[in-house]
Amino acid sequence: MTLYMEEIILEKILLQYREKPLFVAIHGPQGCGKSTSCENVKKKLQIMGLRGLIMSLDDFYYSHEKLQQLFFEFNDELYKYRGLAGTHDTQMLYHCLDKLKNGENVLIPKYNKTLNNGLGDIEEFIPHEGKFDIVLLEGWMIGYKPRKYIPHLLRRFNFELEKYQNLERYFDLWIYFDTHIRHVYNWRHSAEKTMDIDTFNEFMKPYFVIYSNYLICARENTYYLDENRGILKNLDRTPN
Predict the structure, then answer these.
(1) Structural contact between residues 53 and 137, judged by C-beta atoms closer than 8 angstroms
(2) CATH ID of 5-230, from 3.30.980.10, 3.40.640.10, 3.40.50.300, 3.40.50.1760
């Protein structure tokens, strides 16, 4: 029987939850189904009487104006669009996590990727009460660690990745999903309705540079996805 992401996530949560807020980080490549899986897990937790909150790294992008300024300052060939390390407002993310850790009410940004002709922008800030049983954060690069030896092309990304390392102190449970890079390409391409193939390839090029040079740094709670997003096997990989 094939297992899927939401089953793994729910199982791990129930094994670790001890009647106090449990903070769960979900790392997985683009298009693998993180958002859908987390929503399904939240619904199942609700049936069990547990209150969940889902946060996405994508909602913490800088404003459109700020991103354009950053791209100019970085002057880096990988940084033409949002998505890579350094394009998120990590200070705001940590502020929200601090509020949630303290059980305080919090305003969480909602990013709309369709604004500014697809370049995106912050659409609104949504108020949330601070009392939750389970808080989930999902993102495509939150499990990556900076590398000691890197090619010149990755220097900016590697430097900016340092800003995300404080996430470790907030989360009690980390779950990592990985897959072959060709599956990421196919998942993203099938979901993209507006770009022609050349534009799509140009948009995805920086991501594939990252996927090809970074591994998830985990020995446990690491799972490999097949082309249908089913769990193939556990991985036991260490970084280069």
Answers:
(1) no
(2) 3.40.50.300
